[in-house]
């Protein structure tokens, strides 16, 4: 059995791979930022004293976490089209990824909220801190600091999962690879290269989150606690 690998025709298409990788990072960035906002609001809603808000947030989280990402993408894609709303594949992909990661982020941040000891909050109340100060300095920020490693891992997984958006013709890395392999008939070489690019993107994102953690969590940096 002879395995003849020829990467010449694949490497000639490096601008297309680069464009696809950049689009993948754009999707990941948009979904990460908006998903974090949704996650914070969802976690607050799940712990609120309003049963309706808690139930709505709970339904959202369970619905997203118990259905495949591809189905969610199709629901957004065809759902918007059936309403007569026309958006680009990139916009639909970013929206679907945001909705997906928002649910997972909600649960991660909620777990961080639950990890804050009640005595810590009572101590802050004893110092006459306002409710907003307590929520920000004693609850929210320490909670996010505790779950930061889990959040960053979820965002890296989101970037990898963005490959599914190729099914709606979003021009990200996997979609570019599909076009190239169908044109060159070098599927094995194409996807070897794509796998390497995804590994590089993952390492870049992890390094970026690590540096961001050093900046926004100086206490961990001083204590030498890993991020």
Task: Write up what this structure looks like.
The chain has one domain: MetI-like fold, CATH 1.10.3720.10. It is 79% helix and 0% strand. It has helices at residues 8-11, 14-46, 51-65, 69-82, 89-114, 118-126, 131-161, 173-184, 187-216, 218-223. Helix 2 (14-46) packs antiparallel against helix 8 (173-184) and helix 7 packs antiparallel against helix 9 (187-216). The longest helix has 33 residues, at 14-46.
List keywords for this structure.
about 230 residues, mainly alpha, MetI-like fold, about 0% strand
Low-confidence stretches: none
The number of distinct helices, counting runs of at least 4 residues, comes to: 10
For the record, what is the CATH homologous superfamily label?
MetI-like
Question: How would the global form be characterised?
Answer: globular
State the helical fraction.
over 70%
Distance from first to last alpha carbon: 47 Å
Strand runs, count: 0
Question: Can you summarize this structure?
Answer:
This protein has 10 helices and no strands.
Please outline the helices and strands.
Elements: H1 8-11, H2 14-46, H3 51-65, H4 69-82, H5 89-114, H6 118-126, H7 131-161, H8 173-184, H9 187-216, H10 218-223
Helix pairs in contact: 2-3, 2-5, 2-7, 2-8, 3-5, 4-5, 5-7, 6-7, 7-9, 8-9
């Amino acid at each position: 059995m002879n395995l003849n690998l020829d990467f010449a025709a694949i490497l000639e298409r490096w601008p297309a791979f680069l464009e696809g990788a950049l689009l993948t990072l754009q999707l990941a960035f948009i979904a990460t930022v908006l998903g974090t906002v949704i996650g914070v609001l969802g976690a607050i809603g799940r712990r609120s004293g309003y049963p309706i808000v808690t139930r709505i947030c709970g339904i959202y989280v369970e619905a997203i976490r118990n259905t495949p990402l591809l189905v969610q993408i199709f629901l957004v894609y065809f759902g918007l089209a059936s309403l007569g709303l026309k958006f680009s594949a990139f916009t639909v992909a970013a929206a679907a990824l945001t909705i997906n990661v928002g649910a997972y982020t909600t649960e991660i941040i909620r777990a961080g909220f639950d990890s804050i000891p009640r005595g810590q909050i009572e101590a802050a109340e004893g110092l006459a801190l306002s409710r907003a100060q307590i929520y920000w300095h004693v609850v929210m920020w320490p909670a996010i600091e505790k779950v930061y490693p889990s959040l960053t891992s979820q965002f890296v997984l989101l970037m990898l999962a963005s490959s599914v958006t190729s099914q709606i013709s979003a021009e990200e890395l996997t979609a570019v690879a599909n076009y190239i392999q169908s044109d060159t008939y070098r599927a094995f070489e194409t996807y070897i290269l794509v796998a390497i690019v995804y590994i590089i993107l993952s390492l870049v994102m992890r390094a970026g989150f690590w540096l961001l953690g050093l900046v926004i969590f100086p206490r961990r940096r001083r204590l030498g606690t890993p991020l």
